[in-house]
Amino acid sequence: MNALPEPLRNIRALVFDLFGTCLDWHTPLISALTTAHPEVSEDDWSSFAFAWRTSFLVQTAIEGRKGTFRPVKELYSDGLDDVLEGAGKAGEVASKWTDEERASASAVWSQMVPFEDTVAGVDLLRQNLAVIGLSNGSAPALVRMCKSAGLAFDLLLTSDLIGTYKPSPRMYAAAIAALGLKPEQVAMVAAHEWDLAAAHKEGLRTIYIQRWTEDRGVDREALRDKFDLYINEGGIVELARRFGAVP
């Protein structure tokens, strides 16, 4: 029995989201915040981090829908301002940060680490497919993170290179153009319903990778029939297995 559903059997390339799909942002951020401010509990910092992350996603969505671009650093800074009030003790501490402390905390968003299945899974998939990254991050930061982690993509496309953010159609069009393939020969891989929905509108096939940090308010069971493939365990290594690569 073929491990892939019929719509994915002619796929020649995979386009990966990075933040939250390939890279774990939560672990390094919580480690940095609790180390700098142990007087705040890890749970409080975690709630604060999720709120900051959500605010950043809202900022990128606004830019993407308008087709405009502001640097990632500005969006993280604006996102931080949006969550300070009402964020409990963590918000009280963060509201008193100096400019240097704000910059230090924001810099941790450029120190994400791969999920444990990411590097091996991407390496396996690259044996038979073109595998590229498509991210709402910056090229310099992602090059550093990927190089440090040994995470090798055939190409990295980022918001600062394209001039807007997902879910702008321009982001997905840039990936298709770079690959030189038809949209239906390319699958978007992400842990975000909104990302895959936008990719689908541009003709890409869709693969959902479940990550505990992402889509926390979404009914994941309802997503199983929405996309071409849903991976709930094993992450990218399991995806590689479905495509015929054996670890």
In short:
The chain is α/β, with parallel strands linked by helices and 247 residues long. It is built from 11 helices and 8 strands.
What does this structure look like?
The protein is α/β, with parallel strands linked by helices and 247 residues long. The chain has two domains: 6-22 and 115-243, Rossmann fold (3-Layer(aba) Sandwich); 26-109, DNA polymerase, domain 1 (Orthogonal Bundle), CATH 1.10.150. Helices cover 47% and strands 13% of the residues. The chain contains eleven helices and eight strands. The chain has helices at residues 26-36, 42-66, 72-84, 88-95, 99-107, 118-125, 139-149, 159-162, 169-179, 193-201, 235-242, and strands at residues 13-16, 23-24, 113-114, 130-135, 155-158, 186-190, 205-209, 229-231. Strands 5-4-1-6-7-8 form a six-stranded parallel β-sheet, sandwiched between helices. The mean pLDDT is 94.
